[in-house]
Amino acid sequence: MEQMQNIYSLLDFGQGRRLEQWGTYKLIRPDPSAVGAASNPELWDSADAVYEGEKGKGNWKMNKTLPEFWTIDFNDLKLTVRLAPYKHTGVFPEQEENWRWMRMITKKSGRPLTMLNLFAYTGGASIAFAKDGHFVTHVDASKPAITWAKENALLNAIPETGIRWIFDDAPTFVARERKRGKTYDAILLDPPAFGHSPSGKTWRVERDLAPLLEQCCAILSEHPSFLLLNGYAHGDTPDSFRRLLTGVIKKQRPELKFDIHAGDLELKSVDGRTLSTGTVARCSFR
Question: How far apart are CA 59 and CA 85, in angstroms?
């Protein structure tokens, strides 16, 4: 019998749900972007666990006993999967293309770089960047998420000096770094549409993203590598992200030359269909 590979696959999607293979286990999770009919209805009965209800108002129904956690491979990265509340697993497979792009862009520098990872969650991007010998400042407002990210760093044998862990509100931290005169060669932002800081301050992407981007541009180094922005709000589009980044960079750092590629964050199912999971703009500096 062929051994199951320790990888992720989107097996099917439709009617507001995804059927996903997470290594040995099959999970069903809600996804409002998964419109239309499923391609292979007969597959869905084989799920090992199903998240029932909407985000924040549901729970996992187990069809078999699953371990507390297990690992998934993304090329040379290993990440821990858990059935967390709010339908999450701690890993966002659509980010793999971002990780690949970051590593490709930074190889051209020929030197160790500093990256600021904001809203960094469980650390996939931080680990991908640190694995190549660069230094990461990892910022998140959730202590459990930072603990999870540290577990992932250990799993990938990242040296303790490779990642600086910061439990803080992203805009507050960036403003503080600007006052200190700190700069970064690369910045990644993965903000939610809505959230709260450790102090209880509300984050609203439509109100707070542009000012944060301005602060981020101010702390880019003299010769930066990239700025990457993910988005999940209903009104986000590749064109709106391209216009936003172009305007902010030209205003804050008119001396910088750059190229922006904006598009959808996507997952492809095993039958070749595409599921959009958000918006991304990747800005590389010349």
Answer: 7
> Which residue, among 237, 183, 248, has the nearest Cα to 209 in the 3D structure?
248
Which domains are assigned to the chain?
A: 8-81 (2.60.40.1180), 93-285 (3.40.50.150)
The DSSP line for 218-286 is HTB-SS--EEEEEE-STT--HHHHHHHHHHHHHHH-TT--EEEEEEEEEEEBTTS-EEEEEEEEEEEE-
Q: Torsions phi, psi of 24, nearest 5? A: -75, -20
Q: Which residue from 217, 218, 224, 129 is spatially nearest to 186, judged by alpha carbons?
A: 224
Q: How far, in Å, CA of 189 to CA of 13, rounded?
A: 28
Pick from 204, 177, 117: nearest CA to 152: 117
pLDDT at 2: 38
Q: State the pTM of this model.
A: 0.93
122 neighbors 148 (Cβ within 8 angstroms): yes
Identity of the amino acid at 75: N
d(CA 183, CA 186): 9
129-132 contacts, C-beta under 8 A, 24 or more apart: 129/102, 129/103, 129/186, 130/158, 130/162, 130/163, 131/76, 131/77, 131/156, 131/158, 132/103, 132/106, 132/107
111 pLDDT more than 60 = yes
Which tokens sit at 176? 């503080």
